[in-house]
Amino acid sequence: MEATQTVTTERGAKGPVIDKRSPVSGEPLGTFPITSRDEVFAAVARARRAFPAWRDTPVEDRLRMLARIKDVVRTHGEEYARRISEDTGKPLVDSLLTELMSIPLFIDHYRKTAPKTLARKKVGTPILFPGKKSYIEHFPMGVIGIISPWNFPFQLSMVPTVSALIAGNTVVLKPSEVTPITGEIMDEIFRRIGLPRGVVEVIQGDGTTGAALCDADIDKIFFTGSVATGRKVMAAAAKKPIPVELELGGKDAMIVCADANLERAARAAVWGGLVNCGQMCISVERIFVEDAVHDRFVSLLEREVDKVRVGGPDEHADMGPMTFPRQLETVERHVKSAIAAGAKVLRGGARLDRPGQFFAPTLVTEVTPEMEIYREETFGPVLPVVRVKDADEAVRLASDHQYGLNGSVWTRDVDKGLALASRMESGQVMVNDVVAITGNPALPFGGVKNSGFGRYHGPEGLLSFTHQKAIMVDKGKLDFEPFWFPYREKYAPMAQAFHGLLGGNLPKALLALTKLRKISEKG
Ligand code: NAD
Q: Given the CA of residue 150, which atom of ligand 1 is nearest to it?
């Protein structure tokens, strides 16, 4: 998807605004001022001024302040869930569970682990450097620009923001223009917890605002979104240059072996492919089924798809509308071109005849690797099934793809599942489950190939917002340096020390060091 997509923007009394419409009804939901380029630069300047004091605040105190987010979410969670659902169209359960609840999980995890992760660590020092100690420290980068997408507008903004803050950085966050209501909620939350001015700045707007943020005086860009925009962001970062982390698209492979628990796998495929209306970077988008169980598995999928209730958040349905109108067009195009290329649509396949951006839960079989629906990210409520000879063929096809974000393997033999998982070219793989992996804050998350690079969540999720500093200390106990001047006749004992160390002959090396010492002392 091209980055220039916007929800309609208009000129309000005070400048351009985002004109937000309901994905459920198409009705207007309000206008939201777009942050101008000058205001973006001013926000970054405020974050820059706030940085030294925030950096010097002990990590325990930073964590204590950020933990207030949990209180705010507890008090206002139901209201926020309603507003996120209004913004995105997703069921209230999803807003509560996959958006809001993710933040307390991460904060609790980092309250336990962050002080240790960010602390100075002692590492070994070779015997060649007697009397010295070595350490690794991590220090925050400065101002982090975070740019996020619309599919999980809260979680995908808040987790990197909170991680960067815990690591001691200040943040300027630009949520997606498609979900400005969630942008407003996050701004409210950071105001409510009373962080010092400038520690987090939320700016609203489309690609122009994001591009202005990339041009501003920031020290790293953490970007989540499409490959096309990721390339532009990386090009902008290259001009400075500053580090960039890209969390991009995916095309999850689900490998269903003949010995799998097919009932469970079918329920998982339908939930993993249709939750959030399939608008998920780790949505099940390619289901490889071994020939021996293909037909049986497909009928189980039909049964499960038939149970899915579609509707808006007020209808307490399982699946809502699509959040972004242009994505609906992509889904339609993929399904149409798949049919033209010989695929069979067994369920759904078209928009629903009701107002709003609804697309029917769709099951497509006889999908092959040449089809657009197989090659490109669909990001919609579509389950494409691919028939394979065996698990080896499935692993080969799963990995032979532009994306490598996430996948799953289904078999009753867990050892076999692990072995297949290890062979998949993917940032994450689950055995006998889908999606849940992203909810474990201890596990690193990120992709390979066109799915991007860098990891967040887990210890990497904090360390990636820091620079490393190597420190070596001479404690002053030995006033002798074997390698300093004068060199004189040092060559022979040095060669002995060298051979002793390489050969694991410690006495020989120590003897050589003693000779070196004598030569140095003669000085
Ligand atoms: P997008 O690339 O269109 O937009 C993402 C963000 O980039 C938005 O905030 C947008 O305003 C901003 N932007 C647009 N042009 C810009 C520019 N030139 N410079 C800076 N910022 C710019 O993506 P989207 O449609 O919002 O999100 C969907 C995509 O995100 C899918 O491909 C999906 O797979 C991916 N995604 C990845 C992950 C992950 O963790 N890997 C998670 C969720 C979504």
A: 26
> How far, in Å, CA of 169 to CA of 87, rounded?
29
Q: Where are the alpha helices (DSSP H) in 119-179?
A: 155-166
- Distance, CA of 452 to CA of 227 (rounded, Å): 8
Q: Of these residues, 245, 277, 281, 376, which one is catalytic?
A: 281
Cα angle 367, 368, 370 (rounded to 5 degrees) comes to 130
**Which H helix or E strand runs over 306?**
helix 291-307
Say whether pLDDT at 36 is over 70: yes
Task: Tell if the pTM clears 0.85, that is, is over it.
Answer: yes
Q: How many whole angstroms separate alpha carbon 389 and alpha carbon 392?
A: 8
Q: Establish whether 247 is a catalytic residue.
A: yes
Assign 234 to helix, strand or coil.
Answer: helix
Structure tokens that stand for 10 in this block: 């208009």
Scored b (16 or more CB within 10 A) or e, 282-300 reads bbbbbbbbbeebbeebbeb
Atom of ligand 1 nearest to the CA of 175: 9
**Substitution candidate for ligand 1 out of 32, 226, 248, 330 with most atoms within 8 A of CB:** 226
The Cα 361–Cα 273 span in angstroms is 9
> How far apart are alpha carbons 247 and 146 in whole angstroms?
11
pLDDT tens per residue across span 216-261: 999 999 999 999 999 999 999 999 999 999 999 999 999 999 999 9
The DSSP secondary-structure symbol of 260 reads: S
DSSP labels for 170-224? EEEEE--TT-HHHHHHHHHHHHHTTPPTTSEEE---SHHHHHHHHHSS-SEEEEE
281 lines ligand 1 (CB under 6 A): yes
Amino acid at 267: R
Ligand 1 contacts CB of residue 210 (under 6 A): yes
202: left (phi over 0), alpha (psi -120 to 50) or beta: beta
Q: What are phi and psi of 220, to 5 degrees?
A: -160, 150
**C-alpha span between 169 and 177 (Å, rounded):** 24
Task: Give me the DSSP letters along 501-521.
Answer: HHTT-HHHHHHHHHHHHHHHH
CA 285 to CA 57: how far, in whole Å? Answer: 44
Question: 396 near 375, Cβ under 8 Å?
Answer: no
- Find out whether the beta carbon of 43 lies less than 6 Å from any atom of ligand 1: no
